[in-house]
Design brief:
With 353 residues, the chain is an alpha/beta fold. 42% of the residues lie in helices and 16% in strands.
């Protein structure tokens, strides 16, 4: 009887990547029948799952208020005789909690993946729906804290399981750039163009560093107009590449990954870069500070501070010895804490026990 992994969408992004890897690796480990469903329409990660032999169902919600998605989810859980439904992100958690009213004898697991404080109603809603979950999984101690404080999740219901990568998957993304000093030096942002990522501050930092660096931005999202305006106003050395199918391509060309977020649940791209031999500079905010150890595996700076961000970038770009130390220490730390060899066992015990 299958375990169903339920997520809001299967577009390119951190949490869909986690769901994809979890489904594929549980299946490879022979750990029962694992299926995936998304509330929205078919996305590129759905195709990746299908190609890997995972059964995927798109529930085709037209938007967050589409009431037809609930009966589709209930029917799916009943027809597939799911014993466990593991939901990721708020909208999927809400749908799963509502479906739980109509489908007894199913174990409901929820996941909270963010420390973003707004909109506040998200946390009020999560406070309500977490009552339907047997367990709430979070990727970091920072998310565990906000789950307790903002969503009222009892501490004994929370399980911390970090995101993970397979180092072998990233060996091909190793870039020769960190060992050399090209000018301008290629620095990278890789992710959703969302206000929480605060990319305009990075654009400002790049302008302060011109002509030392050139910023490459990979991704798309609602904050694109504000980023375009910052680039035009500051005449910042930036290339916008749009969305990219896999982060390997971007990281293989990068000399430094910068994540200027105001908040993160974890920051999967950080450990992807660390495994690919790309040093990281990021903001000292919840989620990120659980992953990056300042001065050891990367550099952390205060959020929304372009001058501090620029100074940290300059330090890494101009100090080859520092770069190599960060790369070596980050690779070791990822292998010790964030590989699927370690993390999959935790998921197997949770989902399949």
């Amino acid at each position: 009887m299958p375990t169903l992994l339920l997520i809001t969408d299967l577009e390119l992004g951190g949490t869909p990547t986690v769901v994809r890897e979890l489904a594929i690796r549980l299946r490879r480990a022979g750990q029962g029948d694992v299926q995936v469903a998304c509330l929205s329409r078919w996305g590129p990660v759905a195709s990746q799952l299908r190609d890997a032999g995972i059964i995927v169902t798109a529930l085709d919600a037209k938007g967050p208020r589409d009431r037809k998605v609930l009966p589709r989810l209930i029917r799916l859980v009943r027809e597939q005789r799911c014993t466990t439904v593991f939901s990721f992100l708020l909208h999927a958690n809400v749908m799963a909690a509502t479906a739980a009213i109509f489908v007894p004898n199913v174990r409901w697991i929820q996941s909270i993946q963010t420390t973003q404080p707004w909109p506040r109603w998200h946390w009020l809603m999560q406070r309500l729906v977490q009552r339907a979950a047997d367990t709430v999984v979070v990727p970091s101690p920072s998310v565990a804290q906000v789950a307790r404080d903002w969503a009222g999740v009892p501490a004994d219901k929370i399980v911390v399981i970090p995101n993970a990568i397979d180092p072998i998957d990233w060996s091909s993304a190793q870039s020769p750039i960190p060992a050399t000093d090209p000018r301008p030096y290629p620095i990278t942002f890789l992710g959703r163009l969302d206000p929480i990522k605060d990319v305009p501050t990075l654009v400002q930092a790049a302008a302060l560093l011109s002509p030392l660096v050139h910023l490459h931005i990979y991704g798309e999202g609602a904050d694109r107009p504000r980023i375009d305006n910052a680039i035009a106003t500051l005449k910042s050395p930036v290339t916008l590449h749009g969305p990219i199918a896999t982060p390997r391509e971007a990281l293989s060309r990068s000399g430094l990954l910068v994540l200027p977020s105001l908040a993160e649940g974890f920051g999967l791209v950080l450990i992807e870069a660390m495994a690919a031999g790309v040093p990281v500079v990021a903001t000292d905010v919840p989620g990120i500070r659980d992953v990056v150890r300042h001065g050891q595996t990367g550099l952390l700076v205060p959020p929304s501070n372009a001058s501090e961000l620029a100074a940290a970038i300059r330090k890494v770009v101009e100090d080859r010895g520092l770069r190599l130390r960060l790369i070596q220490q980050a690779a070791s730390d990822v292998k010790a804490r964030f590989t699927w060899d370690i993390v999959l066992e935790q998921y197997k015990q949770l989902v399949l026990s």
